[in-house]
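Late entry, adenosine-5'-triphosphate complex.
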Amino acid sequence: MIELENITKRFADGHRAQTVLDGLSLRVEEDEFIAITGESGAGKTTLLSVLGTLLPADEGRYLIKGEEVKVNGDKNLAARICHLRNKEIGFVYQDHRLLPQFSVLQNILLPTLAVKSSSTAEEQKRALDLLDFMGILSLKDSPVTQLSGGEQTRVAICRALINQPSILLADEPTGQLDATNAHTIASLFRQVNDQMHTTIIMVTHSAEMAKVAHKTYKLVNGKLLEE
Ligand SMILES: Nc1ncnc2c1ncn2[C@@H]1O[C@H](COP(=O)(O)OP(=O)(O)OP(=O)(O)O)[C@@H](O)[C@H]1O
Ligand SMILES: [Mg+2]
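Prediction complete; structure with ligand written out below:
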């Protein structure tokens, strides 16, 4: 499903260049559920951004379902990557990034508007089914600003799943939650992986969250070590 080969990512800020990913390789099979841990600043969000095609790698090869993701200024290729991102990848951001001016349902439907001006009846039904699956159907018309952290996390997960992606990337989805809520989210991820057959790559600091994954890697010195 996913292959990273010798990925390098550097950030330069004028005075210093920092190599965050340093010849990193990873292979993720279809239906696999991977957890990634690592110290703050180790490069976990950077890695997810490369995986999510939000950030280009400086060196190395990245393949999704055998197709190479490469940025080289070619407009057709850029459109192809955009299509691949919309179709195949769902992203749960570390800070959720829900839009405060919209309701829960509107936030979840936003990714369906990437290529057209309104969502279909089928997409609206899927949004309601996802809300039901996450146990927050009653909140569908609430402003997202009135939700608890755990509820916002669940909305962000619904939004990431609305286009039925084959890959779900989640950046510390339980970072701000108590143990009970973290446990609920952990079992929801397990169900998404089991029932929707979504390949999951999840960054987490929580040992409990990592336990529900099939494999755990630790990001150290720009490379992944299997735990
Ligand atoms: N856009 C950027 N420009 C310059 N440096 C960056 C940029 N993004 C990240 N970095 C640097 O890269 C390193 C890795 O950052 P990253 O956000 O990937 O860490 P992380 O493992 O997700 O940390 P945390 O657990 O705190 O979320 C940090 O030193 C950070 O300052
Ligand atoms: Mg991070």
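The CA atoms of residues 65 and 149 lie 34 Å apart. Will revisit in the morning.
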